Amino acid sequence: MRQTCNSDGGVGSTENVQARGITLLSIFVDTPTAEPNPETKLLADFKTDTHLRKVYLAGREYLNKEGQTSVSPLIGKIMQQICTDPTLCPEYPSSFGLPEFTRRATELVLGRDCHAIVENRVLGVQTVGCTGAVRLGAELLKHWYNVSGVWCGPVYLSSPCDDSLAGIFEAAGIQDVRRYRYWDTEQRGVGVQKMMEDLEMAPEQSVIVLSASAHCPTGSDLSQKHWRLLTQLMVRCRFFPFFLLPAQGLCHGDFQQDAWPVRLCASLGMELLCAQSFSHSFGLYGERVGHLLCVLKQSSTLLAVQSQAEKQVRALWSRPSVRGARVVATVLSNPAHHVEWQEGVKSMVERGILVRERLREKLRLLGCPGSWDHLIQQGGLYCCTGLNVQQVEFLEKRRHIYLHPNGCLNPQFCLAAPPGSLQRRHTPKLAVWLCLSTHRIIRVSCLRSPLPSL
Amino acid sequence: MSLFGEVPQATPVAVFKLSNDFKDDPNPMKVNLGVGAYRTDEGQPWVLPVVKKVEKLIVADNRLNHEYLPILGLPEFRSSASKIALGEDSPAIQENRVGAVQCLGGTGALKMGAEFLRRWYNGNDNMKTPVYVSAPTWENHNSVFANAGFKDVRPYKYWDAEKRGLDLAGFLGDLETAPKHSIFVLHACAHNPTGTDPTHVEWMQVAEVMERRKLFVFFDSAYQGFASGCLDKDAWAVRYFVTQGFEMFCAQSFSKNFGLYNERVGNLTIVARDADNVRRVLSQMEKIVRVTWSNPPSQGARLVAITLNTAELFAEWKDNVKTMADRVLLMRASLQAKLQALGTPGTWDHITQQIGMFSFTGLNPKQVEYMIKERSIYLMASGRINMCGLTTKNIDYVAKSIHETVVNVQ
């Protein structure tokens, strides 16, 4: 009878294992260290940077006036209510999540009187954040898109895009992931012509991942005119649009406008997927409240697609976590709460615009070369400065200001914060620092290469 | 033409269908013995008192924010959850060779483990490594491993229907003949759906073969504390394997033992040869998490972490768990006693010998159908019942129904 373990080098310890002739070579010995994802690496570099005035501008969250993430008093109150509600019981939710949540999330994107909803050809699934929604959508496409044709791609992503997107499709088994040109460095905006050129070359039945509004990471979106042209192209080439809508309401302060491209496609009778997140608009990052919307051409396919979606969810996470979705559903189903929440979102947008304007103004006052109008033309969480790789590196290494390698930043992180707050020791001088640095680098780089055209 | 036009209807998940049929049944005497969740003697779900307490603490705590958790989850949750499985004084923990990933429930933990193994175990991207799951097993085991890319998911002998117990010879036989490095999914305790666990001696025999044949140990631990009422007792198998020097994965769920079904609290515990291996494995796990759910949800993990790391709350939780386990034991004893008193043909000792939430009654599919159609008592086609569906109010009805079924239907 073998001994049970004890704490001083007993039976299970390394010495004893060796003594019993068990190989000490781990079964994981061939597992390499993974390359850290760029965002993790950037944050890690920032954390180990000992410079007193270091600043991190690549955060993923919306910040309040104090430079912190927070939930509104309304959300806080609803969380309290939920906590003390005796009628709520700890049951397994369905794999699709809370019905009230999926219903409201669907209506928020498509509009309550959307034909697709009325004709019962819309599927909504609560997911673990936007990532979960994209992953579920990818699994659905991989397994069930054009079954008889054995579809396996391609999926087109914008260049640049969120750095996890390609990996999500690959993890779902879709290896053929390509890019279409999106951000135009010279124009400092969307290069629509190049985008259309690339998509014209795409094979039929390609899945095109599109940002409905507040493009990550550039903040630059298509105009309505360009959306119309794009949808014509998609219909003609039989493309399948997969929309990303992580911050509805936070781009223009208008929920309809932010979802307009999705509504346009739905009104044209297209099939589409749309991955939504409520992290930003509710400040509920930790709760992972996401939603996958699927609009089908025919209601006759709904039950079958729904049943297959359930199977996919079962094998991914079985069912989603409920708390965050309950909060969102409570707000969205109560007219008074809904209005209060929308007002809150609008003021977040206004604050965002203010910060962008201040930044642009300071750059103008400092006589920074180039045009900086794109800073206020962009919307949502991110903005793309247009700085190149060398300039971004200069900012990081010489000025301890951390941006995404592609020159994008979250302007909210420029806000003032109370003294002593962790990591976000921003002062009103930050904007000046940023401007000076930008100004200096552009000057420096001007010596080496031609000025960017205005 | 819809490009989803040819999507076939998936076969419904059996346990969901059963629940739906139960809901639609108008018979006031109906009993749901299919659900996989705890119910009180009033037939209601139970919010553990300690959970209510901690929820209030969380809501009242202004310092807690709603930011993203780290990709691998809440650190204090991960470490305390692993301690629960491995024991405070585990040599593996002391030698700093344990890692963990917070996941979406037990399913999420299995998923992460499966995705990692498919990518990095037994060669790179080797989808041919056989994955063995018990016959029978929780049906989602098959889906999770198949969807992770494994092409060869097979059963290993486990349940002996004739003797209504463990088929040890069959189990050991399959271990001996499995290709080396095959992955075996083992139920840590309270086997689902049979409720039949190997004894300590039997576990030792299993471990001996697995060590010799270099088979990968993947524990599924969804019922720790719930089986015997004692956390340490229920973790005996997992801890024994650690003392034998195994590297392993252990997928833990806190859905049942915390009653946190809807917050999806799970943990994948990783035991490796040393800290460097753990570090590399976790770095790859991060990549996998990033493309599945990016960051896990915070609420449930926070709740469990606070409970496990606060002495009084921990004691209260253990007590709550024992309450649930005791009720199950009581229902087992009552059912067995009633069936014996009725003189129901056959032996019914297995009801008290089996452990955990479930019992494999031994009723055949025809008998199950009779129970459902004629008596409105809902159980799985396998004959599995959830003891938590029994209450002092319905146990007479259920016992009589089983009796009637066994007598009239063969």
From TrEMBL, chain A:
Question: What binding partners and quaternary form does the record give?
Answer: Homodimer.
Cofactor requirement? pyridoxal 5'-phosphate
Family, according to the entry, reads as follows: Belongs to the class-I pyridoxal-phosphate-dependent aminotransferase family.
* An example Gene Ontology molecular-function term: pyridoxal phosphate binding
Domain Aminotransferase class I/classII large: start-end pairs: 83-407
An example Gene Ontology CC term for this record: cytosol
Q: What Enzyme Commission number does this protein have?
A: 2.6.1.1
Record keywords:
Aminotransferase, Pyridoxal phosphate, Transferase
What the entry lists under PANTHER family is as follows: ASPARTATE AMINOTRANSFERASE (PTHR11879), ASPARTATE AMINOTRANSFERASE, CYTOPLASMIC 2 (PTHR11879:SF36)
Q: Name one GO biological process term.
A: aspartate biosynthetic process
- In its UniProt entry, what is this protein called? aspartate transaminase
**Does Membrane count among this protein's keywords?**
no
Automatic annotation (TrEMBL), chain B:
Miscellaneous notes for this chain? Answer: In eukaryotes there are cytoplasmic, mitochondrial and chloroplastic isozymes.
Subcellular localization(s) per the UniProt record: Cytoplasm
Protein name, entry field: Aspartate aminotransferase
Q: Give the EC number.
A: 2.6.1.1
| Gene name of this polypeptide | GOT1
Q: Which UniProt keywords apply?
A: Amino-acid biosynthesis, Aminotransferase, Cytoplasm, Pyridoxal phosphate, Transferase
Q: Which GO terms describe its biological process?
A: aspartate biosynthetic process
NCBIfam families recorded for this chain? PRK09257.1 (NF006719)
Gene Ontology CC entries for this record: cytosol
Q: Which reaction does it catalyse?
A: (2S)-2-aminobutanoate + 2-oxoglutarate = 2-oxobutanoate + L-glutamate; L-cysteine + 2-oxoglutarate = 2-oxo-3-sulfanylpropanoate + L-glutamate; 3-sulfino-L-alanine + 2-oxoglutarate = 3-sulfinopyruvate + L-glutamate; L-aspartate + 2-oxoglutarate = oxaloacetate + L-glutamate
Recorded source organism is Oncorhynchus kisutch (Coho salmon)
